[in-house]
Amino acid sequence: GHHVSSQRVRFQRRIRACRYDIDQFTPNFLSIFDSLVPSEEEIAKQKQLLAALSRLINKEWPNSKLYLYGSCANSFGFSNSDIDLCLSIDNKEMSKVDIILKLAEILQAGNFQNIQALTRARVPIVKLMDQVTGLSCDICVNNLLAVVNTKLLRDYAQIDRRLRQLAFIVKHWAKSRRVNETYQGTLSSYAYVIMCIHLLQLRRILPCLQEMDATCNVTLDDNQCAYFDHVDKLKNYGAHNKETVSSLLWAFFHYWAYQHDYMQDVISIRTGRIISKHMKDWTRRVGNDRHLICIEDPFETSHDLGRVVDKFSIKILREEFERAANILQYDANPSVTLFEPYMP
Ligand code: GTP
Ligand code: MG
Which of 150, 175, 188, 293 maximizes ligand 1 atoms within 8 Å of its Cβ, making it the mutation to test the pocket? Predict the structure, then answer.
């Protein structure tokens, strides 16, 4: 109706041309990226801890397997982040909670510190600290979808280096501005990376791997996870597009500040397109899912990664997108101002 079309006109008017001198800031943004990347030494420590834990757990459960997932395995992790592990175990006699409790006992006996079994969390986990490597980690059980979506993100990152650069800077902005806190109604790091992949798909810098002939295929909890994973064959995919990370960053924030249609649109990396809320029946609140910003999970397609966002946090989020867009358009020092800590 009238309301929607006048809102569209307002959006259109606010679309600006990218600042002509944006590229001069690329070295600054790239040095921020470099400062956040974990060192080889840290990655070696993560592997060492994974090996130590696998050895210990396999003594009790020889058929289990321990996987790294989340930021330490998807290639979007900062240095000094906690490690996410997933224990895959086929045990018909024990419930998930039983497994978590038993796992806590095994770790206790194996000399790990600060062990906590969080059995009542939405995703039950065991937390621990390792004194040998100084690393902390969370172990969940049989959450293989997370292991597979971790691989999807890592595979996308191999195609064009600009994805990793863009996503690191967006994550760093989100952490500085306190809009990377799901328990406060803002978005997860996983959601931000998906938003970056989507932008690069629309700009033909990344392909849509799930629309190509599948070379890896698993079905987990009724979700089919199939996509083309021979990404070494796609290294030149985005080469025709010469945009720098600064202009992509500008495009990212302008999209979310002024172009995204929050009333009607869902972003979907599964299809590489924008799809409609109407089609997914995401037009109204169902239970706790409010669908105020819609980001489709690539494999659990009924799952909106924006479901945590409520009517208060959507306002905060959109104001932060606008702030970032305006800084990238006008500020004399965008690579500094963008990350100024949020002060309540
Ligand atoms: P940081 O710890 O912030 O650096 O990032 P992270 O990549 O570890 O992200 P996050 O803690 O958001 O998510 C960890 C992993 O959980 C992701 O990589 C996904 O594999 C998985 N995951 C699957 N579904 C969801 C979801 O709805 N929300 C979140 N947060 N994670 C999900
Ligand atoms: Mg994490």
Answer: 188
